[in-house]
Amino acid sequence: MKYKSYTLYNYREIKQLRNLSEQEMFDIEVVGHVLPFKTNNYVVDQLIDWDNYKDDPMFILNFPQRGMLPDEAYNNMADAIKRGASRSELSRIAADIRFHLNPHPAGQSTQNIPRLNGELMRGMQHKYNETVLFFPTQGQTCHAYCTFCFRWPQFVKMDELKFAMNQGELLVEYIRSKPEITDVLFTGGDPMTMKASVFKTYIDLLLEADLPNLKTIRIGTKSLSFWPYRYITDNDAGEMLGVFQKIVDSGLHLAIMAHFNHHVELKTDIVKEAVSRIRKTGAIIRTQSPILRHINDRSSVWREMWQNQVELGMVPYYMFLARNTGAISYFSIPIVSALDIFRNAYSQISGICRTVRGPIMSSNPGKVLVSGITEINGSKLFVLSFVQGRDATWVKKPFFGEYDKNAVWLDDLKPAFDENYFFYQKEMEGICVN
Ligand SMILES: *Cc1c(COP(=O)(O)O)cnc(C)c1O
Ligand code: SF4
Q1: Which candidate among 69, 298, 315, 340 keeps its CA 20 to 30 Å from the CA of 16?
Q2: What is the 3-state secondary structure (H, E, C) of 314-367?
Q3: What is the pLDDT of the chain when averaged over all its residues?
Q4: Would the pTM count as exceeding 0.85?
Q5: 3.20.20.70, 1.10.630.10, 1.10.357.10, 3.30.565.10: which CATH number matches 115-428?
Q6: 38: Cβ below 6 Å to ligand 2?
Q7: Best residue for ligand 1 mutational test, from 127, 163, 289 (most atoms within 8 Å of Cβ)
């Protein structure tokens, strides 16, 4: 397979390489000052269809679009750039716009940070009993950035909000102190942007600690879509696969939580080769994605994506609704549409692919599954349930929301039967003191 070097592009380079109009380039520049922008030669050369780029899902996934900012925000930034405002002024305007884009949905920055011996563990989140999230400092970037990403505050230098720590020892100690934890999920950014030697340091600490409760190591990554060369031609590709092998050989389950948004990402020779190499280590690749307007809001896309994933030996896991953050109004679709797309795709695939669950809202109280729409005593209702809850006793108890064809997120839903609260809301008040 041809060697590919890793090239970072900025918009000035793109302008020289691709025939975007002046206005398109300017839009990318304006929006890119607010939402992070980063692409690379794999995405540009192999994923984006430049003959139809305006509607191309990979282009929209990776390149900032005019519609992603409200008009007022767009105009403020555009005017500042046109009058040659200083870098510090541009940063100030960007920070102000970001502040209004709900950078920390689902109480991420305050409510899920665990304590060890009274001290806040800034590089971890622990919300659901079994799984602790770990944000290794060295993995807080990605091979390219998704325009819809809810982790975007981590990439745009809001340093005080950046959850990161470099101490694997604290991670080990924390897992030891919480016997209910079975899974540690390395996340970011993208932990696969770390050097293999750095990742190995964390893994060795975990393996040497021989924690009796730890059963699964998970890695949340988009490297298979944005940079499959990670497992093939990167200098330390073999070393990374060696670390995977070591985890599996130690008897732990290694789950690669791969992020794919579209079947286009599954078609290149290089991604197929990367999947095959990872699977040979004994790791299981599970897949997840949000459902996004302009990118994958058709059931045929999901049907084909899930089928392709299973063909390549991966296991479909979650379909999420787009989180209420960043350019949400550009990407979000009503819950009813997501449900329709899910059901349509799900009903046309083999049971082998029906491991997938969705549509799910990963919200402050927990992961809420929209099971369907029903009618009780003449009123139309959403049937909802927790797949994961802040309180484990909430899981798998059906509850009902009033049907609303415009609702896009849990906050938009009203409890059914004229109740004032959903059943978990009273308990939430008690939980959310940190
Ligand atoms: C989704 C998520 C997890 C993992 O949940 P699973 O259902 O076990 O995959 C863990 N922690 C947080 C905060 C999450 O959002
Ligand atoms: S790869 Fe994941 S963390 Fe990185 S920009 Fe995309 S969604 Fe965000």
Answers
A1: 69
A2: CEEEEEEECCCCCCHHHHCCCHHHHHHHHHHHHCCCCHHHCCCEEEEEECCCEE
A3: 90
A4: yes
A5: 3.20.20.70
A6: no
A7: 127
